[in-house]
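Escalated from tier 1: '5'-O-(N-(L-prolyl)-sulfamoyl)adenosine holo job.
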Amino acid sequence: MYLSKFFVPITRNLPTDAKIKSHQLMLRAGMIKQSSAGIYSWLPLGFKIMKKIEQIVREEQNRIGAQEMLMPTIQSADIWKESGRYDDYGEEMLRIKDRQGREMLYGPTNEELVTDIFRSSVKSYKSLPQILYHIQWKFRDEIRPRFGVMRCREFFMKDAYSFDLSDEDAKKSYNKMFYSYIKTFNRLGLKAIPMSADTGPIGGDLSHEFIILADTGESQIYADKKIFEIDFKKYNFDNESLQKMREDFSSIYAVTDEKYNEKMFNERVKKANQIKTKGIEVGHIFYFGDKYSKPLNGLIDSKDGKKIAVKMGSYGIGISRLVGATIEANYNSEVMKWPKSISPFDVVIIPNLSKNNTENLEKAEKIYKDLKKQNIDVLLDDVDENMSNKFKKHDLIGIPYQIILGSKSEKDKFEFKELNSKIEILSLEAIKLKLKKD
Ligand code: P5A
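Tier 2 regenerated the structure:
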């Protein structure tokens, strides 16, 4: 992609309500544009990053045997009346009437709809377990949408739903998902801490939030540093090992302010290990048994012929929120550096084009073609502007590697820079190796 052709409306003008760095950066770098309060258009740069996040989430869901589907955004109010949540959900639900006067709503979540799909197709324990998921827009009419994509009204979520015969089996599904979340956030370059949580409007008695540390987060966090030493790679993908992993995490102190107890924190965590900061909830998982299957008649024949309500859990990841959360975790001193796994491009070529330097542009185009052939996703900054402006712009776009064609470049060697590190002078072959190796 040539930057001159790429639709990235970089701007200096910020609305006064852009209070946190991710919101400011996303607007400045032309990643999103607000269309009304808490509702955003995703412009090409922001959209590309969000799609990369979505793909990693998808791969890790598929890996544990969850199956992707797609449910609509608009739902009938009837199933919500059956579950009893139509009234409970309150003002956050956007209610709509169609031309026949039927009550509809823009889905804030999908427990009811997926239970309806399940009850009409699955009858026997032989078809269990099942995990279904989709990645779809949700709408919650938040009273105070704020912080850009972090707390908005329309947002993109991965939501998965598990169906099991017994509580015991359902906890196995829960453990698989717990593991999958740790792995997913790790691939996104984030250190997420699982914390046992309250269940709110989703319900149930077992729940974990996955929280990343950031001083602009909405929840206050108290945790023991040791939690970062747990390495998910040492656990196998069998239930015994996954249960052990969940217990290992639970054995280390990590809570949000709702569950905080100062005395216990000081007793259990030595001073040097105490983390007291803010955090952002990027995922939330729930086990609620038959809370929805019972009222909605999601029944299955068990082995002994009895009809029992299927045991369910639901598992959410805020995909659009993760774009903002990743920025909060990685944007420092005016420089954004995307983790390699979700960077909008693998590398950017920045030729010095001052004094109409066509030679540098030609060189850049040659490198561009060569890297493209190797399947490296490359951006060429062919915009005619001075180098200092270019660098400022790329500090916002955040591509982690730069090839600079400037005064220090030699005939076959170029300046290669990893953001926040020193420049090296390298041949194109050495650069390719670097881009591959990391
Ligand atoms: C789990 C999946 C649920 O909705 N039902 C289906 C369950 N959980 S949740 O915690 O309410 O939401 C899951 C994740 O979605 C993100 N999220 C938001 N992102 C942006 N703006 C919002 N207003 C918003 N609300 C929730 C969070 O990442 C949350 O963990």
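The longest strand covers residues 274-289.
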